[in-house]
Write a structure and sequence with these properties.
single chain, mainly beta, 4-stranded mixed β-sheet
């Protein structure tokens, strides 16, 4: 007896920013965009909204800024904003893009609005990496910016 392989395909597109329309997918159905720019895996939730579950957008403009399919973004969708020299991770709240850790990432020192107790546990924002101390975490706000963790006597960009 010969077995014939079966190929299952989801709704898919290779066009940038081509998100599935709510009218073309059923609740729980998966759809994928495999374009090099603004790709992701999507599904339709129980209230009929399209949700992006994978693919963090990286670029100078927000994801789906010029939609080819469904307009808007999914609550919790992420974007690495590279429009300035200090890159920021942003999350869509349902109405606006919110910077993550912005209180500490907008200056080269710990935010002055934080309380003394908060400052003790805060992640320091630096413009150059200090000598590594075991377990220390800093945000580098220059050059190869990002969150660094000290390990084995050096720094690892996370």
């Amino acid at each position: 007896m010969t077995t014939t392989p079966v190929t299952l395909l989801s709704k898919r597109s290779g066009n940038a920013s081509d998100r599935p329309l709510v009218t073309t997918v059923q609740n729980g159905e998966l759809a994928i965009n495999f374009a090099a720019v603004d790709n992701g895996l999507y599904f339709k939730d129980s209230v009929g909204d399209i949700r992006k579950v994978t693919g963090t957008h990286y670029g100078t403009t927000a994801p789906n800024a010029t939609p080819a399919g469904e307009t808007g973004n999914s609550v919790g969708e992420m974007w690495v904003d590279s429009s300035t020299s200090a890159y920021y991770l942003q999350v869509w709240t349902g109405s606006t893009w919110q910077k993550i850790g912005a209180a500490f990432a907008d200056s080269a020192t710990t935010a002055s609005s934080a309380s003394t107790a908060d400052q003790a546990d805060a992640i320091r924002v630096v413009t150059s990496l200090p000598a590594a101390a075991v377990g220390e975490i800093v945000y580098l706000n220059a050059g190869a910016s990002g969150l660094y963790v000290s390990a084995n006597g050096g720094w690892i960009l996370t």
